[in-house]
Design a protein that fits this description.
Length: 166
């Protein structure tokens, strides 16, 4: 199984990758997100503006997603707060790989779809490192207190962690 994907959106023209694994299967043993990309988008992430122009590539994920009509609207985020850094910040830190110019979530969507590539090890390492925020919630927030550290909870959601169950 090797399916060719050609990407033509606002940030990439003619980028080609291949799906080599079944969707949602055969993940690295250390990579176990609690939410799928589609679930994350439906809950509300990135102020509703993430990947709106990627319908050809991610149309199925965008069905039922909380999407902003115009500018970013953080009220669409599940926890109703801004928990994002601008893309320029991510670029300055060197966290953006040329194959995924929108960052980690784009990488995750493509990984979930079945793409495997040279940046997987680094991105999985970044995801694992983000778990420290889940540990902080467990230490500092009563179970079920969703308003406790809402910004941190929203950030965890952006990384596929589900703080609603902590």
């Amino acid at each position: 199984m090797k399916k060719k994907i050609v990407v033509n959106d606002k940030m990439q023209k003619g980028y080609v990758y291949y799906l080599t694994e079944p969707e949602g299967k055969n993940f690295d043993l250390e990579f176990r997100p609690e939410l799928t990309p589609k679930q994350m988008l439906r809950l509300g992430i990135f102020g509703g503006v993430y990947m709106r122009d990627c319908v050809e590539e991610f149309g199925e994920y965008l069905k039922g997603a909380k999407l902003a009509k115009g500018e970013r609207d953080f009220r669409l985020n599940f926890f109703g707060v801004d928990a994002s850094k601008p893309l320029s910040y991510w670029r300055e830190k060197g966290w953006i790989h040329m194959n995924d110019p929108r960052g980690w979530f784009q990488w995750y969507c493509r990984y979930y779809k079945g793409r495997r590539g040279s940046d997987d090890f680094r991105q999985i390492g970044r995801w694992k490192a983000f778990a420290r925020h889940a540990a902080q919630l467990k230490r500092n927030c009563p179970k079920g207190a969703w308003n406790c550290r809402a910004r941190q909870r929203q950030a965890l959601l952006h990384w596929g962690y589900d703080s609603r169950v902590m």
